[in-house]
Structure formats: structure tokens, C-alpha cells
Design a protein that fits this description.
By secondary structure, this protein is an all-alpha fold. The protein has one domain. Helix content is about 85%, strand content about 0%. It contains 15 helices and no strands. The longest helix has about 45 residues.
Length: about 375
């Protein structure tokens, strides 16, 4: 038994270290690669079982493809498999992003490096905008959800806290009979929603990213809205340009986009900040996957709970739209940036890998510098 478990853990580690090292293209690409290796090549589960897990992770906050890797590990080898698969999938990107953050801090003032980032930023705006359109087609499938998203967008433009927007949107989606129950918990959650680091220490950084990882619905791109509101606008710990740079690194490297947190943590407090941010933002995914079996069955059987999650998803897309506008204003600073955005939008629609486009943007920025 122990020998079989050890073999399964080694297989999980090998598979997800590989996927974490070559998994460019975001969650959709990650899920496709996992299906190829887990279902077609290894036969660890049927396609129906795999799609069931995909449905489960879409009901949970956090990074969907990472949670799918954790679910596969849990199905394969229990709690030990859960830990091995999740850590193996996250580790390559974390180390690569940490290296990029060190280089950014060490050489970021060099004009050539600044030029590279200047070329990458418009591409990031195009990537986020393209993802937003795709997500909206799926997440805003009814007039009611589109209305919730519109209301959430207005609240975001007015500067209302992102977490309160999500909660209010969920309450709206539930309907009048359930709003009272949702409103009764808002006073308890409001202090948590307002939490931003008061000093650049590992503990504060961990708590901030733990909160983000616990309630972040939609996709890794919605992370931008939370970071911008918490750390750029209210906290003032990073600048708009640094946020764009962090997103560019998270997108240009393989693995989950949530490793953007690693970059931000390093900017705030060096290696200890990077570790705190990474552990904080990914820890909820491990806990939620372990607890999601009974929870998911309950959500599927309880229309109000499913409605609440639909409202949260709609609000997440609204937050994503608001942050895309803000990022675009900061990144599009001339005709070259406009051409990069337009060209990236067209190439993304043609199926070109987003990581390749970021490399092109970097090359353009390098030439311009």
C-alpha cells in the first residue's frame, strides 16, 4: 500500500511539475493539457469524471486550473496527493516569477528594461480585454445577471470596496427574499473587506492575500481589480505601473496567473513578502478543494446558493471591466501602444498564444528603448 502511494505521489509530482513549467496560455490551456494527460494518456479518470471536476472548481473562488490540479491529486492519492499536485503545479511559476521580481528590483531603473516593460503593458491590456469578452459571454447569460453586472460596474466606478460589491451582487442575484440574510452578515465582513497592509511586513501581506484568495471569483484577471483597489488606491504600496509590470510577469510565465502575488509580495518586502503573498493567495484553494465535496452537492441542490454565486461571478466581470479601463489609460501612451493593443486583439482572436504576444511586445519595447 505504501509503495503504491509513493508511486502515485511521484507520478503526480512529475506530471504537475511538467505542466507547471510549460503551461502557458492561462486556465483554459491548463485544463486542456490536464485532460490530455490525466484522461487520454494515463486513464486516471473518465472524461465525464474530469468534466465534473471542472464544474466543481468553477463553483469555488480562487485559481480554477490550480484547484483542478489539486482535485486531481486528491482523487488520485488523498490528502497527500492534494498537497503534492498543488505544490508541484504552483512551484515552477513561483520560482520563475520570484527571479523576475528580483531582476526587476535590481535592474528596473535601467532604461532598456523600462523600455521592455513599456512594450509589454499594452499587450497585457489586450489580453485582459479579450478574456473579459469571453468570460462575459458565459457568465452574463441572462438579463438579470447583466443588470447585476451593470450595477456592480457603477459601484466600482464610484469607488466602492470590491468585496462589498461582490457581496451586494450576490444578494441582488438571490432576490428580495434572501437580501435580508445577506445584509445581516455585511457588517461582520466589512472590516475584513477594508483590510490593507498597514506596513510592508510579511504578516500583513499574508493576511491581505489570504483574504483575496478566499473570495476571488471570476478568474486570475479579476485579481487586478483587488490589487489595484487594495494596494494602489487605498494602500498606496505599489504604483499603477508596477501593477502592470506584475501582471505582465504573471502572464508571460507558465502556470497560474495568481503568481502575480509573488511579484507584488517581493516588491513590498523582498523574499519574505513573496513567500507570504504566495502562501496567502493559494492556501484557500487547498482548503476549499478538501472541503468542497459536500459543499458543492449542497450548492447544486440549493437554487439560492447557486444564484448567489451567479451574482458574484457577474460582479467579478464588472470589476474586471473597470480595471481594464484603468490599465488601458495607464498603458496606452502613444501610437505604438495603440498598434500593439489592436494587433494583439486581432492575433488573440486568431488563436495566437498570449505568452508569444508578450514576447513580441517586449521586443518592440526593447527596440523603442
Amino acid at each position: 500500500m505504501a509503495g503504491a502511494l509513493g508511486r502515485e505521489l511521484r507520478e503526480l509530482a512529475g506530471l504537475f511539475l511538467t505542466l507547471g513549467s510549460v503551461g502557458f496560455g492561462g486556465p483554459a490551456a491548463h485544463i486542456a493539457m490536464m485532460e490530455e494527460h490525466v484522461v487520454r494518456r494515463r486513464g486516471w479518470m473518465t472524461r465525464e469524471e474530469f468534466l465534473e471536476l471542472v464544474g466543481v472548481v468553477n463553483l469555488l473562488p480562487g485559481p480554477n486550473s490550480t484547484e483542478l490540479a489539486i482535485h486531481i491529486g486528491y482523487r488520485r492519492a488523498g490528502v497527500a496527493g492534494l498537497l503534492v499536485a498543488g505544490v508541484a503545479f504552483i512551484l515552477p511559476a513561483t520560482l520563475l516569477v520570484l527571479t523576475c521580481a528580483w531582476a526587476y528590483v535590481r535592474y528596473g531603473a535601467v532604461p532598456v528594461v523600462q523600455g521592455i516593460w513599456r512594450g509589454v503593458q499594452p499587450v497585457v491590456v489586450a489580453i485582459v480585454a479579450t478574456a473579459l469578452v469571453d468570460f462575459a459571454r458565459t457568465g452574463l447569460r441572462s438579463v438579470r445577471l447583466r443588470a447585476v453586472a451593470a450595477a456592480a460596474l457603477l459601484l466600482a466606478v464610484a469607488g466602492i470596496n470590491e468585496f462589498l460589491i461582490l457581496l451586494l451582487a450576490g444578494a441582488l442575484a438571490l432576490g428580495a427574499a434572501w437580501r435580508g440574510a445577506a445584509a445581516s452578515v455585511l457588517p461582520w465582513l466589512a472590516p475584513l473587506a477594508a483590510l490593507v497592509p498597514t506596513e510592508a511586513g510579511a504578516q500583513q501581506i499574508f493576511l491581505f492575500f489570504l483574504r483575496v484568495g478566499s473570495v476571488l471569483y471570476g478568474s486570475g484577471y479579476v485579481l487586478l481589480a483587488f490589487l489595484r483597489g487594495g494596494l494602489v488606491e487605498r494602500g498606496g504600496w505599489i504604483t499603477e505601473a508596477q501593477l502592470l509590470d506584475a501582471v505582465a510577469v504573471g502572464q508571460a510565465t507558465p502556470g497560474p496567473v495568481f503568481t502575480t502575488a509573488t511579484f507584488v509580495g517581493y516588491l513590498l518586502a523582498g523574499v519574505s513578502g513573496a513567500v507570504a503573498a504566495t502562501v496567502g493567495i493559494f492556501l484557500p484553494a487547498f482548503v476549499l478543494v478538501a472541503a468542497s465535496g459536500p459543499l458543492v452537492r449542497w450548492v447544486r441542490a440549493t437554487p439560492p446558493a447557486r444564484g448567489f454565486l451567479d451574482g458574484v461571478t457577474a460582479a467579478s466581470l464588472a470589476l474586471m471591466a473597470a480595471v481594464t479601463w484603468q490599465l488601458g489609460r495607464a498603458a496606452i501612451d502613444g501610437p505604438v501602444a495603440v498598434l500593439l493593443v489592436i494587433g494583439s486583439l486581432l492575433l488573440l482572436r486568431a488563436g495566437v498564444n498570449s505568452a508569444l504576444l508578450i514576447l513580441v511586445g517586449a521586443a518592440v519595447g526593447l527596440v523603442r528603448s
